[in-house]
Every structure is written in C-alpha cells, then in structure tokens.
Amino acid sequence: MPDEPLVLGIETSCDETGIGIVRGHTLLADALASSVEQHARFGGVVPEVASRAHLEALVPTMQRALDEAKVTLADIDAIAVTSGPGLAGALLVGVAAAKGYAVAADKPLYGVNHLAAHVAVDTLEHGPLPEPAIAMLVSGGHSSLLLVDDLTNGVKPLGATIDDAAGEAFDKVARLLGLGFPGGPIIDRTAGNGSASIAFPRGLTAAKDLAAHRFDFSFSGLKTAVARWVEARQRDGEPVPIADVSASFQEAVCDVLTAKAIDACLTHGVRTLVIGGGVAANSRLRVLAEERAAKHGIEVRVPRPQLCTDNGAMVAALGSRLVAAGVAPSRLDLPADSAMPLTSVSVAG
Amino acid sequence: MLVLALDTATPASTAALVEVTADRLTGVAERRTVDPRAHGEKLAPEISATLAEAEVRPGDLGAIVAGLGPGPFTGLRVGLATAASMGQALGIPTYGVCSLDGIGRAAGPGRVLVATDARRREVYFATYVDGVRLFGPEVAKPADVAEVLGQAYRKRTSEAAESAALSESEIIESATALAGVEAARLAAVLARAEIDAVVDDPDEDRGYWAKKLRAFDRAAGEGALKYGDIFGVPVEEHLLYPPGAALVALAAERIRSGAPSEQLTPLYLRRPDAVEPAGRKPVLT
Ligand SMILES: [Zn+2]
C-alpha cells in the first residue's frame, strides 16, 4: 500500500544507536550500532560513554538504514525520535539529530515515548495490536506493567519495579557468578544446563505486599538472596553449582513477572499480553508466559529478540501509528525528557 | 555560497548564516540564545528562524561549519549532532573548527587569552596573537592557567632560546629554522611579552606566573569574565561567545576549495567519569 506513511525512527535513550524505517506496519530497515562492549568493563552503561558513541554512530547508522530501505530522506513522510524516558545526555544526541534531519529535509517531527515504542514494535511482527492490551516491558532500564487502551493517546502504568530493573538483576547476578556483561543472555544460556532447584524469594508476592504493590516488582532482595546463598557455599568450601543458581534465579524472576502480568490481564479483562524489552528475549520467560496465558485464553505476543531490545524500528513503528492517527507533530523546541511519563506517548506541538 | 554556522560549546546556542565569496565573508543573519541547559531546545528553532529571516531554504546552503568545542559535553553534542545530520540530509560538507578559535579570531589584533566555563570550577582556555592560536585548547582551574601557560611556553621555546639570540628577529629566525612557523610566532610573543626570561628563572610559584599573565592585552570568553579576578586581564565583555562569522572565517579556505566533508568530533579534553567497579569478587575465577 503506497499510501501508508513512510516513517523514520531514531533511538538513542541508552546504549544502542538505532535507526529504523517502516511503511505502515512493514519494517523496511533496522540499523543498529551498540556501545555495549565499551560498557562491559564497568558492569553497566556509563552515560557519557554512551552519549559519545551515539554522536559517532548516528550518521553512518542512518546511511545504513536508508540504504537498507532503498529510500532517501526526501522520501520520508515523518521523523520520530525517542524523546524520553532514558539517559538525558544520550537522548539529547538523538533528539538534536532528529531535529537536524527534520529541518534540513522539511519533515514533521514526533518526539515519542520509549516505553510506548517498545509496545508499538510488536505491530511490525504481528500486525495491529488488539486494544485494550496489557504490556509488560522488562529490560535493563525498566520493568513495567502497562494498560494500553489506545497506544496513540496514552498508556496507563499499572506497576513498575521499586528497586532494580529486571535486566539489572540479571546483570548483577551474572557479575556475582563471574559470567560477564550483559547478564541476560549469559544467564539464559547457563540456566539451560541447570535445574531450578534452589528456592529463591519472589519479591512483592506475599499477601501483605500485594495490597500496596499488586503490579509492582522488586528484584533487589532476590539478588541479595542469591549472593548470600553463593557466599554460604563458598564459606563451606563447597563448589557453587553455577548452572543451578542461574536457573533458579531466572525461574524466580520469570515466575513473578508472568504471574503479575497474567493477574493484570485478568483484573482488567484483557485478552492480549505484549512483552517487550531486552528481558523478553529470555527463553524461560516466553515459555512460562505462554503456558500460564494459555490456561486463561490470553494471547501472548512477543516480538523477535532483535525487536525486543532497543532499536530504531520500534520508534518508527510508534511514529507510523501516530501519523496514521492524525496526531499533531512536535515543535522544534521539543525537549529531551529523561523522566517522560507514560501519559505522554508523544509530545504534541 | 551560503554557509550555516552552529555553535553550542558555551551557554550560548548560536546559529548564523554567512555568505562566502572568493574574496569576502558577509554576515547575513545570526541568532543566539544564552541558556546553559537549553541548547537542545533552542538551537533548532534558531536555525529555522535564521533561515526564514534571510528567506533561505535549507537546500540553498552550501556548507555547514560547527564549533567542536571544547565545551560542556551535553550541550556541545547538540550543535554537532544537528550540524552532522543537516549536512547528511542536504548532502553538503560539514567542517569543524575550535570554538575558542572563533572567539580568538573575533578578538582581533594583540595578545588575547580566551577562556570559557568548563564547569566544576575549571575553564577551557587557549591563547591567541592577532587572532591565531598559539597555545591550547586546554582545561584547568583558573588559578592554574598562568602556570600551565608558563610551563608550556618554557618547554616549547627552550630550544629557540638556547640558541642564545634573544632579540625578537633573531628568535623568530632561529625558531623558524628549528620548528617552523608556529614556533616562530610563539617565540615572537615571548620576546614581546618578555616571558623568555623564564627559561632561566627558578621561581615558579603562582604569584610569579600570575604576573606573567599580565602579558596579555585582553581576555575574552565568558570564563574570562567569570574568573576575571583571578586572571587580572581586561575582559572584552562584548565577546563572550563564538560569533558565527568568525567560525566561518576559520573554515573559509576549506569552504572555498571545496575540501572534503569532515566528521565532527568534539574536542572533549576530559575523559568520561567512569570507574571500573571493585565490586564483589566473582565466584569463579
Ligand atoms: Zn528500552
């Protein structure tokens, strides 16, 4: 359908420089440059290192995206950029570049919400999203449960982590086990050779916590419990069963995430659960979510792993929906907002 | 050719339009907002308004010149990301210039110290003679600038001075033979400022170097104003930020000769603040 808008998306909220191009719901290009290796020795993303890398990577990544989609900037109908939430300095590089492209090529500019973009990306793989839907976003930077009534108009946060993000917990436990960074994929692989035989705590699931934190998460206590368990084994001079610890830790995280996500679906009478963010790539999370959702007739939609982690395609996907819905573009004084609330899916002009 | 100049290395966001012909530069329009936290919000509307005021479409631009800093990183990157993306979208070359050079160039004849605010109670600074940079850019505490300059001058001129000819013309001659034009210019400054004597002077205390700072005729840049008491050099209060026309002038040769586009890499001068975690010992090593 040539009438569908051709939208460019720019993502620089954390350590991935992403440029995506979509036409309607069709993904044409998804170019990515990551600074993850530069952060590895620090055990987490260093904002200034990420910002420097974004500035270096932007122009070449844009060129790769345009080449891949076989279009020029003149062909683009609108430019969408993550304007928040995220690392302030990193966001600003993408927003400034998006403005440069918008001014030079005379295109409308949409500042969009990173979390809403994580939800929108699913449309590239599974088509239009049935609404309302529950979205669970789990990554190194965020862990949220959202009620999506109309993605172009606002998303209602139901709950979020009260301490570490889910991905952060994976990173910290991986470091504790000497497995490297980022922790998610390594723990997933290591857990495959072990069994979830150790009973680690499930944060905010006790009856007394559920009253105030029904849809919130907490992973800090779990991380501490893993550390204590490991230290006790070492103190006793016993070998640490890395695979079993990984599997048990992963099981505790996935158990809480999926239980709360399904609970959110049932509570709000919603039959669609979308999972996004880097942790959505976790193999156990996918299996457990499918298993539990099936019992209640809930459909689980998880985009393929490359689309779950931060990328430009997700921003373009949300931009495409905003253009199609006739939402007003942002103004050129669009700020980068590191704490952008979910009530604003895009920054209207 | 119409050239767009952008600079966000200081609290000012500057967008300027300059007409470059074979023999002259003509300022067409310029906008500036001074707000150290708002480059990201101010710059793009300024560009848009500057172009509109001059009735110029982006497609009419022939090149973009951007101030590479040094300057506070977050704001600095706004100008460079904007310049790079516009250059890519328009298919025109981008050229980088040192932002301090823009101020130094605009300051005109004489010996000039340029200093901008590097935050954390430090300044980015460089020195100029007749608009040409001799030292820097560097970053230091204001009170240490004199000493940094003195050490550098002494180091860079010792060879020339050792050759013993202490009259200005002789220094220039011997320095040219030794190290080329830049060192010769430097030696000339030293002769004029009588700083050459430091080569033999064992007294390196702060008061001594501070006195030597007086060799500058003027200082420019908002850092020079902010720490005026420490530098003790008359400040050109009208010249606190890099003017667009001066930035374009610095790249004029490249623009006129159609030099290849340059990647706009900031002059960071500082490494990212990042410490490797001592952290918990891995279980397995
Ligand atoms: Zn994300």
Any idea of the CATH topology of the largest domain in chain A? Nucleotidyltransferase, domain 5
Give the neighbour order of strands across the main sheet of chain A. 3-2-1-4-5
Class based on secondary structure composition and strand pairing of chain B: alpha/beta
CATH homology superfamily name of the largest domain in chain A: ATPase, nucleotide binding domain
**Biggest interface, residues from each chain:** A-B, 48 and 41 residues
Can you write the helix and strand succession of chain B as a string? EEEHEHEHEEEHHHEHHHH
CATH secondary-structure class of the domain at 2-108 and 241-257 in chain B: Alpha Beta
CATH architecture of the domain at 2-108 and 241-257 in chain B: 2-Layer Sandwich
Subunit organisation of the chains: heterodimer
The amount of beta strand of chain B, in percent, is 15-25%
Gross morphology of chain A is: globular
Number of helices of chain A: 13
How many E-type strands of chain A? 10
**Major β-sheet profile of chain B:** 5 strands, mixed
Say which molecules are bound, naming each kind only once: zinc ion
Distance between the termini of chain A: 28 Å
CATH-derived topology of the domain at 2-108 and 241-257 in chain B: Nucleotidyltransferase, domain 5
The percentage of residues in β strands of chain A lies in 15-25%
Rg on CA atoms of chain B, Å: 21 Å
Number of discrete helical segments of chain B: 10
Q: Compute the gyration radius of chain A: what is it?
A: 20 Å
